[in-house]
Structure prediction request, 990 residues.
Amino acid sequence: MSNEPTLRKNTTQRANGNVILDVKDLRTYLFTKKAVVKAVDGVSFFLRKGETFGIVGESGSGKSTTALSLLRMEPKPAGRIVGGEIWFYGENILDKNEKEMRKIRGSRISMILQDPQTSLNPVFTIGNQVSEAFTVQEGRKNNQGTLLQRVIDLLRKVNIAAPERRFSDYPHQMSGGMKQRVVGAISISCAPDIVIADEPTSALDLTIQAQYLRLLREIQQTTGISIIFITHDFGIVAKMCDRVAIMYAGKIVEHGPVRAIFNHPLHPYTHALISSVPRMEARVERLFSIPGQLPAPGEMPAGCRFAPRCMYADDRCHKEYPPTFGGLSEHTEHTTDCWRLEDPTWEPKSYSR
Amino acid sequence: MGTEILLQVNNVKKYFPITKGLLFVKTIGQVKAVDDISFTIGESETLALVGESGCGKTTTARLILLLEQPTHGEILLDGKDIYALQGDDYRRYRDRVQAVFQDPWSSLNPRIQVRDIVAEPIIVNHKLSRQEIRDRVEKILVDVGLDPVHADRFPHEFSGGQRQRIAVGSALISNPQLIVLDEPVSALDVSIRAQIMNLLRDVQKQYHVSYLLIVHDLATARYMAHKIAVMYLGKIVEYAKTEELFNNPVHPYTKALFSAALPSHPDIQREEIILHGEVPSPIDPPTGCPFHPRCPMKIGTVCEKEIQTLRCKDNTEHWVSCGLYAEGRPEPETGRQQ
Amino acid sequence: MSKAVATQPLQTGKPRSVSRLWWRKLRELPLVSIIILLIVLVIPALLAEVIAPHNPFEGSLGKRLQAPAFFGGPSEHLLGTDHQGRDILSRIIYGSRISIAVAAAGILIAGILGTLLGLMAGYFRGWIDALVMRLVDITLSIPAILVALVVAAAIGARFSSVVFIIALVLWAVYARQIRGETLKWSQSDFVARARVAGASHFRILTRHILPNVTNTLIVLATLQVGFVIVFEASLSFLGVGIPRPNPAWGLMIADGRKYVMSAWWISFFPGLAIMLTVLSLNMLGDWLRDRLDPKLRQV
Prediction:
């Protein structure tokens, strides 16, 4: 990834506009007893103000480690950021010390978990927990009156009815949807610039999931924050995201505006993955199934990580990781890591459906 | 399908008692996990039970697997009540009905070789020679896409998808008539799911086996199932052939569920039906229709008081349990969904 | 499509040679513990006749209370002699047999009994569970020494009574631990699958649950050997354990009590043997626990 992207059809692929987060060649390795696992292996992406960016991947793709690295919360003690830059409003996050990072976490970049049950403390009231979020970041300079007012305002912002009364409720007195809203309120309490939404792999009920996504949308509309979605589900990407990066085994293999990815996936992995997901809207005769298994951590293929499962792979794919190519002309931000794109007219064959 | 009926579930209820006290146990209430459900599964047919957690679909599966005793009702396999089976009949039932569970990490005994995991159903129920067992295991492993050379390995040496293949192989080895699939792909990685779904469809044709599919993902249900029953709070609210149900859902809960599903393309914008409140507790379910407190289409006492039964909608095989379709009411307009 | 997968190599099952794996495991062993155990416990017990310089039961009063060789005593008795003129080194060497025999018999009986009851309680639940767990509670709440005194008073101090006392005190620990494990495994999907396949209760317990609790059993047993050796020594010290003139370590300490000021070596060396054995057994047990069953850390 360090070499300049090879251009395809005279496109510019670097970002312009309101970029607030610019990640360059991020590398986070896990140093285990047996081997060094390159969990995040040279990942670059950027995030604009007010947009929703998705990082999709399967287990071992490094999507969660990427998200945690943004907050410098890579899994300790095995995990270590060994290279790259994370530019956030002109400052490199990787140059900050722990004390400075604590100021950024929560107040500038915050994280929201999908499961409200585990992220609220059952022995404190809602008001307590929300106001704690303020005091942690700002110290105890607020007087109680204004603090109370701010908590109530915040609860109103996430559409909690009668926040004056809800204020002194305990989590168990609230419904699941309400708790989700409180968790949402805490995550935006200090008007962060970025919220990272990391989705647990366990299956959530459809209606609960829909509530959660709706809440995030509302929050985004009222505050104009940027959201990074970490998910394995293309449905969430389709519904929520403006741009998306597809990760496989520690690398971003394809990246672009969400419609470009869905309409013209260029990386064989993206293309196969989209073709292998059943649809609710239409009858599918037969799903394409990607052969083989995900590479085990520590046993990475030498060249393109997807080559052993790829129907287009040749000798070079197995030996050498491909450079990044620009996408089709109408999608200037569409990039793909695949040797096949050396041929400017190449496209993956469509699978019979 | 128009096939012979294999399994018949008639008015089955399963109430779990809530007890109090250590020495003198007192029943203080009941959880109505499954509350009067009926359905049939035909030969070589897949029926999917869909619904959210707590709707009773897993309990239904456990009842069919004889892991629970029903409080009321009967389940017939080939016309025989499965709870009255004794001796050889019971053993035959164990042979003919198998299961594949959700998590391939916890459903395979970590201390047993794959060969013995796969062979378990025929070791337990048949007197076969070692060579016969060996041959059948190797044939099954090939059928589920594994290399028989690996039969002597332990489960931890396989990936999630391969483990689920082992589980499918073990479920198939006794040539069963019915396999209960409890969320068979939801614990797997996205790129592995299609492999397992296609495998399940392929072996269904090869072995002429029926599936009861417990699933929360609607897209999976549409791909795998011939018929679908939608459950809510222990009851079946809608029951139809897959294509009919997706093209023309009529129960307000089914519609809400469908509207909450994630789209497969960013250009698909569904109108979201927002349900208010929470799923009521199955200890004290609402009177009448279990969905009425949250139903956006509720019509007075019909919904609040009367218990609706599954009724056939305009002579199709589309069954619905809803006050809007109560007897003597004119059929409401149903805008066909895309 | 599924057929294509068969040709893919297994991702995690790279053919590592078995001998290399063993070598790696060997290197991680707590070698110091094992060497101490071999020197103090195992080799003496196996080869007592060969390595013991004297008869442990016979002494001559003329040689009583001789100091260890390196402490100014005659070179004949490396660790000195006791009040009856018996060679302490030889008695310690023969004493290791008693420690091993008592520990093995006691733990075996306690382990079998506790595992059996724990399996039944955890698998069948209901009244069996209630009964077994109450018995466990009662057993664990009575002081072990009290049990020992009562039993010794009733049936006398013999080898068999010591084993009986140890089994009586220890079975509850196994029962409680194995019951918890069994409870967990009974709810696992693979047990459900076995039931669906038609496996009998006996088959499920022996084939599916028991192999999954063996790690726990091994770790528990290793951690308890040390306890049993100390316990046996305490019993013998109190005079309700192994009868005289057997060279049990605890008994030797008790015998030396009167001479602590003048002939400290009578009590000191058996005490050192107990300490080294128990310390290295516990270290070995900790290591095994970390390797096999980290959940047991609080036990």
